[in-house]
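Quick log. Single chain, no ligands specified.
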Amino acid sequence: AEGPKQRLVGFKMENTGMVPPEGSQIVSPAANERAEILGWVSSSRFSPTLQEPIGLCWLPADLAAQAGTAFHIRLNGKLEKAIVFHGPFYDPAGERLRM
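-> predicted structure:
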């Protein structure tokens, strides 16, 4: 009745040199060390075609609904910024498909 609580969505990292390990925690940016866990990274890789890290993650449905929404992944004790990405990572306009 309430709809899905979480959604699987694509993401891109703001820091293009950072590929988060699978299972990394997605957390709320808190001023203290007790940040709330919101979700997790299910898969991530560095795309040689796009020259940037891409992946899939589980996020709360309201956070995942809007493309371009920023969130934070905890990596090595620091918070790294990522962006919600909807649609295909490669060839979103389908130009290569029509060649």
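The longest strand covers residues 37-47.
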